[in-house]
Amino acid sequence: MSVITLRGMGPGAEKKIRKCAVREGKSLNRFLIDLIEVNVMGKGEGKPREFNDLDELIGSLNKDDVKAIEQSVRKQRKTDPELWK
């Protein structure tokens, strides 16, 4: 079994990692191994990821809001030919 030591991690990052581990009910070690396996090794692909960061918006937009968002997204999807020379 390998051992990896991380040096120079800021206290904010450490605190956030520890909170995430607690939130998922995992030890710090298990949380970091799972994080690496999923994000670096690609394990766990096929498992649906749960996203809830936009839940507050569900049902809160009117037709004008939706139209404005769609127009904005459409503009962002246009390719700038100058960038692809």
Annotate the secondary structure layout.
Blueprint: H1 11-23, H2 28-39, H3 63-76
Helix pairs in contact: 1-2
Outline:
The chain has 85 residues and is an all-alpha fold. The chain is built from three helices and no strands. 46% of the residues lie in helices and 0% in strands.
3D architecture notes:
It is a single chain. This protein is mostly helical and 85 residues long. It has a domain at 9-47. Helix content is 46%, strand content 0%. α1 (11-23) crosses α2 (28-39). It is extended, with a radius of gyration of 20 Å. The mean pLDDT is 85.
Kindly state the percentage of residues in helix: 40-55%
Overall form: extended
CA-atom Rg in angstroms: 20 Å
Give the helix/strand class.
Answer: mainly alpha
Order of helices and strands: HHH
Q: Could you report the average pLDDT, rounded to the nearest whole number? A: 85
User: What is the distance, rounded to the nearest whole angstrom, between the alpha carbons of the first and last residues?
Assistant: 48 Å
Which key terms come to mind for this protein?
single chain; 85 residues; mainly alpha; 3 helices; 46% helix; extended
